[in-house]
Design a protein that fits this description.
Elements: E1 2-4, H1 26-33, E2 37-40, E3 48-53, E4 56-61, E5 78-80, H2 86-92, E6 93-106, E7 119-123, H3 129-133, H4 149-155, E8 158-163, E9 166-176, E10 180-187, H5 196-210, E11 214-220, H6 224-232, E12 235-249
Parallel strand pairs: 4-5, 10-11
Antiparallel strand pairs: 1-2, 2-3, 3-4, 5-12, 6-11, 6-12, 7-8, 8-9, 9-10
Protein name: GNAT family N-acetyltransferase
Organism: Streptomyces nigrescens
Pfam families: GNAT_acetyltran
């Protein structure tokens, strides 16, 4: 596939449904945030289109238009696509791992728990970029959809638990859509089981609702801690789906958004919330 410049994009309404929850919101997040990249089988009148951000890919269109190795640029990505794209993925990669996913939608308002003594939960501001950057390397995924810690801190769409000037936990809008905001959270391993993630998530959910949007939450079916946190925070299961982790490309191309620091290291197949 070839990369498209923003001014080469076709009208997106025919490719992606507006107002979708979960990872599908990244099709709206990319043009709004300026992060991520667009790909197509050809620039004029594309027949197959892809959008990638933070190690996730959405594929749409006619897979028959793709060359055998066209999808090799999406090595080490989580791909969500109609079933018709599976032969094209199989032709491009020697390994495709399906991950069963669960999509939750926020339905039950929950009061934020009181943070422990000495901990403050508040909205992130641009000056917090350095504190976000100081998180452990395995936390880099949490701000990847904003292009890094400065992007998330400046977005106004993140909440964090602070101990003095140190970020102990953070929750943020990961993919910002026009109706849904898919959220993510991370807690420093040394501060888990203190309900810090719940405090950040509930504050964020109230913030999202105040914008007239609905929070959504996606995680691996096997990630019981993430599922429990979602339920406790007022999310309820909407549906289940499968996405595919790609690897061993038949012919390597430049990886567009390779997730070098990804929560899959903590929870295989999970891109949203490591164990807390």
């Amino acid at each position: 596939m070839i990369e498209l410049a923003p001014d080469q994009l076709p009208p997106l309404a025919r490719w992606f449904a507006a107002g979708s929850p979960g990872t599908a919101a990244l099709a709206e997040h990319v043009p709004a945030s300026g992060t991520g990249r667009w790909w197509a089988d050809r620039a004029p009148a594309p027949r197959a289109l892809a959008v990638s951000c933070a190690g996730h890919v959405l594929l749409r269109g006619d897979p028959r238009a793709l060359a055998p190795d066209a999808l090799a640029v999406f090595d080490a990505h989580y791909v969500q696509a109609p079933a018709g794209f599976l032969p094209a993925l199989s032709g491009a990669f020697g390994r495709i791992v399906p991950w069963e996913r669960m999509l939750y939608v926020h339905q039950v308002p929950v009061a934020a728990p009181c943070p422990p003594h000495g901990v403050t939960v508040r909205r992130l501001v641009p000056e917090d970029a350095a504190a976000l950057a100081a998180l452990a390397p395995d936390a880099a995924w949490v701000h990847a959809s904003w292009g890094g810690p400065a992007g998330l801190a400046a977005s106004g769409l993140g909440w964090a638990a602070f101990g003095k000037d140190e970020v102990l936990a953070v929750a943020c809008t990961y993919f910002h859509g026009t109706a849904y905001e898919d959220i993510a959270c991370y807690t420093d391993p040394a501060h888990r089981r203190r309900r810090l993630a719940l405090a950040c998530v509930t504050a964020l959910c109230q913030d999202v609702a105040g914008r007239g949007h609905t929070p959504s939450w996606t995680c691996s079916r096997d990630n019981r801690p993430s599922r429990l946190l979602a339920w406790t925070a007022g999310f309820r299961l909407a549906h289940e789906y499968v996405h595919y982790l790609t690897g061993q490309p038949a012919r390597r191309g430049p990886a567009p958004d390779a997730p070098s620091d990804h929560p899959a290291a903590a929870v295989p197949g999970d891109t949203k919330a490591p164990p807390r």
